[in-house]
């Protein structure tokens, strides 16, 4: 399997310049897209199809910081994402109360609405905190890569995913039903 | 360095529309539409199977088998006089199953044959045809128009499809091309093609939305333009929404009127319905330019007339136009842009002439939409540009399109596991490992679906892939890696590899809708023979027409003074050339006829000069000849 960073000709890193990435992507697309190989023999056309699909998959992965981080983790031998049902211990209490409120809301009791609204603000803020934390961890890893740092990245990613799910849940329950 | 010794192949661009179809090509000055024999650039997507075989035996033109099938304007006329042998809007049926089209059947006079199982069969007269075969008749007509224009065979094409077409609809379009004797180099999404035509002389960079409301389909695409790269960020749409829906709405009202006024249920009378439908369409089209008009019908000595104001018309069609706005909003969200970031909005498709459509789009996008290019032609022009990209004529442009629908496989409990998400740039791929669940299992069946929903039953079944001849092993030991690849046409390809042996694993494809490869092959076989025959028959006919012209001219010249002034040798040479042309006139050898025509041209050159001189002399003398 082609390494995505190698395909783009850049060093493996968690922070990337998106402008540079897009520029490389366009340049590589001009070279590898099947359109450019229409008049070539079948074998070459097939190769272009394979390469350009890998290029597109790589670009999709690398241009998104979270997908990029997951990709680096998997390349470094970290196994798949943790299931998001494992509650981060420091959030236990808040999540417990939130679930109660969500239950009430689903049961048609709208008195829980203010509580959910404040929970939404709260968790959304937490999300941006995690994002800042991740940015910091990304930078530290890029400066001097180590397994410990990646491990920290993975911890934050799991935490982020968990909070994101909570925000989505709350958002859904607050949205006017169709 | 690659050196291509062959002459560059001409690749045509085809817009295979619900209502009209067009063919275009790219020359040094840009893309151009090729008109049909009747001079019309739009070829109505109407096909009629004419039972009256032409009796041209006197001319010796052979049995014109293809004369049975009428396409375009002529077929549109036949829609009135032989509606049971004529079909329109067949694009609505492409790649669909019987259960999909129940709504269509209420509104369109499709005659579905009882034998419709995996593929719909349309009854036209005493024969049945699949939707790809009907579309192939339209494509063949466009191919012939291009061949007549270039004077040489055309075998390669780019065909456009609605961006929101699913895999089966795309495959059906590709099949139609193959049946028509065309190698379909690429299926291009209509809004993207349109942006290529618009992009020719427009901005180099920026974000563009293309709103495409045609006869039967609606697409919205948002693209990023960057120095010749056209990157689609997101697309959305509805493959059953268009001008047809407006026509049907007005038709229903008019039918009710007629029932009240005449006391006649016209809907049982297919000719009456078609005449009324045409009256309704004409009124709709007029309402784009005038504030009020009337729907008028004269039929069997009775008259129906109904005034319609644009205000009422707008009110009637608002629900239809509103159905386009949801997909627009979703598309903007998926593209990850805000309305303010969209620099231009481009209007495509005949239905965007309707003032209400323009104002709805203007309100949503907060920008005045572009309407400079003919909304009927712009897709075909873009297809010609893409044809130029594929043939190497155009080097500086590149289209990066997306797949409109997510692709997934069925897992336990009827749940979908998504492999490739919607709006992924194509070609796109995903790899999954499969194993066996029972000792000694030889097959694994993979059910692939398209759509955004969680459950298999709410998505569109695409195909079942059967991994065959797996080596018998204890359960869970086999490891088969399956690669799902959506190619640049938006069509899925599946390959499988046994990871233990590294060998290619055979995969049997059972498409849920559409023709099998064998069926298409058979249809191609029939049509290729026919197409070659058609082409040479047409060549022969054209050469004969040319021969008729020159023979008539020579006949006339023989009564001219200049003829008698010729030396005997010249006159003999003319007589001989005439005789030789007459001898080959009835043969099927068109190059030979052409050769004899040229020979006669040569022999009469002196005569022609003399005649000119005589004419000039007479003119100078002021006398009439």
Your description of this structure?
The complex is a heterodimer of chains A (178) and B (625). Chain A is mostly helical and 178 residues long. Chain A has two domains: 4-63, Helix Hairpins (Orthogonal Bundle); 89-174. Chain A has seven helices and no strands. The longest helix of chain A is centred in the last third of the chain and has 31 residues, at 113-143. Chain A is elongated, with a radius of gyration of 21 Å. Chain B has 625 residues and is an alpha+beta fold. The longest helix of chain B is centred in the last third of the chain and has 41 residues, at 517-557. The A-B interface holds A 22, 26, 29-30, 33-35, 38-40, 49-50, 52-54, 56-57, 59-60 and B 2, 4, 185-186, 226-227, 229, 231, 389-392, 398-400, 424-430, 485-488.
Query: Alpha-carbon distance between the termini of chain B?
Result: 65 Å
User: What multimeric state do the chains show?
Assistant: heterodimer
Q: Tell me about the largest β-sheet of chain A.
A: none
Please give the CATH architecture of the largest domain in chain B.
2-Layer Sandwich
Query: Number of helical runs of chain A?
Result: 7
- Assigned CATH superfamily of the largest domain in chain B: ATPase, nucleotide binding domain
Taking all Cα atoms into account, the compactness measure Rg of chain B is 29 Å
CATH structural fold name of the largest domain in chain B: Nucleotidyltransferase, domain 5
Q: What low-confidence regions of chain A span 5 or more consecutive residues with pLDDT below 50? A: none
Quickly count the domains of chain A. Answer: 2
Return the average pLDDT of chain B rounded to an integer: 87
What integer is the average pLDDT of chain A?
Answer: 86
Gross geometry of chain A? elongated
- Strand-residue fraction of chain B? 15-25%
């Amino acid at each position: 399997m082609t390494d995505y960073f190698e395909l783009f000709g850049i060093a493996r890193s968690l922070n990337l310049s998106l402008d540079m990435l897009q520029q490389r992507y366009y340049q590589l697309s001009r070279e590898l897209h099947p359109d450019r190989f229409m008049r070539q023999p079948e074998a070459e056309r097939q190769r272009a199809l394979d390469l350009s699909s890998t290029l597109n998959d790589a670009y999709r992965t690398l241009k998104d910081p979270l997908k990029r981080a997951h990709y680096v983790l998997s390349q470094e031998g970290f196994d798949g994402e943790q299931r998001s049902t494992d509650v981060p211990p420091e959030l236990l209490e808040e999540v417990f109360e939130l679930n109660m409120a969500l239950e009430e809301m689903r049961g048609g009791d709208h008195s829980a609405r203010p509580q959910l609204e404040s929970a939404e603000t709260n968790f959304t803020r937490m999300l941006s905190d995690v994002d800042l934390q991740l940015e910091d961890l990304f930078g530290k890893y890029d400066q001097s890569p180590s397994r410990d740092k990646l491990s920290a990245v993975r911890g934050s990613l799991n935490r982020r995913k968990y909070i994101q799910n909570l925000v989505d849940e709350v958002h859904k329950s607050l949205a006017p039903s169709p | 360095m690659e050196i291509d010794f062959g002459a560059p192949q001409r690749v045509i661009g085809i817009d295979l529309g619900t209502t009209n179809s067009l063919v275009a090509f790219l020359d040094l000055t840009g893309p151009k539409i090729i008109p049909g024999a009747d001079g019309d650039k739009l070829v109505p997507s109407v096909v009629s199977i004419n039972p009256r075989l032409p009796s041209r035996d006197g001319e010796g033109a052979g049995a014109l088998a293809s004369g049975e099938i009428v396409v375009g304007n002529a077929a549109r006329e036949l829609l009135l006089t032989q509606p049971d042998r004529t079909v329109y809007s067949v694009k609505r049926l492409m790649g669909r199953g019987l259960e999909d089209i129940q709504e269509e059947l209420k509104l369109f006079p499709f005659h579905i044959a009882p034998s419709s199982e995996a593929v719909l069969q349309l009854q036209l007269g005493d024969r049945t045809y699949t939707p790809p075969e009907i579309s192939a008749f339209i494509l063949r007509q466009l191919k012939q128009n291009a061949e007549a224009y270039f004077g040489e065979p055309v075998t390669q094409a780019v065909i456009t499809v609605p961006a929101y077409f699913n895999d089966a609809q795309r495959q059906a379009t590709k099949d139609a091309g193959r049946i028509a004797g065309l190698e379909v180099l690429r299926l291009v999404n209509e809004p993207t093609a349109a942006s290529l035509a618009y992009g020719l002389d427009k901005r180099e960079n920026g974000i563009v939305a293309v709103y495409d409301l045609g006869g039967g389909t609606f697409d919205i695409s948002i693209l990023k333009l960057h120095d010749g790269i056209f990157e689609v960020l997101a697309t959305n749409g509805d493959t059953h929404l268009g001008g047809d829906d407006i026509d049907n709405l007005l038709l229903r009202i008019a039918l009710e009127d007629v029932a009240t006024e005449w006391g006649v249920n016209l809907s049982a009378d297919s000719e009456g319905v078609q005449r009324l439908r045409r009256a309704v369409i004409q009124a709709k089209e007029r309402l784009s330019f005038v504030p009020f008009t009337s729907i008028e019908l004269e039929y069997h000595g009775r008259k129906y007339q109904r005034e319609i104001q644009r205000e009422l018309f707008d009110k009637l069609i608002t629900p239809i136009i509103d159905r386009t706005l949801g997909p627009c909003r979703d598309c903007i969200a998926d593209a990850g842009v805000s309305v303010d970031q969209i620099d231009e909005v481009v209007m495509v498709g005949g239905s965007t002439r309707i003032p209400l459509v323009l104002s709805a789009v203007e309100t949503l996008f907060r920008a005045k939409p572009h309407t400079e290019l003919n909304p009927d032609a712009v897709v075909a022009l873009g297809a010609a540009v893409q044809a130029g990209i594929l043939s190497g004529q155009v080097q500086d442009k590149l289209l990066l399109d997306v797949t409109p629908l997510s692709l997934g496989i069925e897992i336990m409990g009827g749940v979908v596991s998504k492999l490739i998400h919607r709006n992924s740039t194509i070609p796109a791929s995903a790899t999954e490992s499969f194993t066996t669940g029972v000792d000694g299992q030889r097959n694994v069946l993979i059910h692939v679906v398209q759509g955004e929903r969680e459950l298999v039953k709410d998505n569109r079944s695409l195909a079942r892939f059967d991994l065959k001849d797996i080596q018998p092993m204890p359960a869970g030991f086999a490891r088969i890696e399956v690669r799902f690849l959506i190619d640049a046409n938006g069509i899925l390809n599946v390959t499988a590899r046994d990871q233990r042996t590294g060998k290619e694993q055979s995969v049997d494809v059972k498409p849920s809708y559409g023709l099998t490869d064998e069926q298409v092959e058979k249809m191609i076989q029939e049509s290729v023979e026919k197409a070659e025959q058609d082409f040479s028959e047409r060549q022969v006919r054209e050469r004969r027409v040319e021969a008729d012209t020159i023979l008539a001219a020579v006949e006339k010249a023989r009564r001219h003074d200049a003829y008698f002034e010729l030396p005997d040798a010249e006159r003999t040479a003319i007589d001989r050339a005439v005789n030789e042309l007459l001898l080959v006139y009835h043969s099927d050898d068109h190059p030979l006829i052409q050769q004899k025509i040229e020979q006669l041209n040569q022999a009469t050159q002196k005569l022609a000069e003399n005649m000119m001189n005589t004419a000039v002399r007479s003119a100078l003398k002021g006398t009439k000849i």
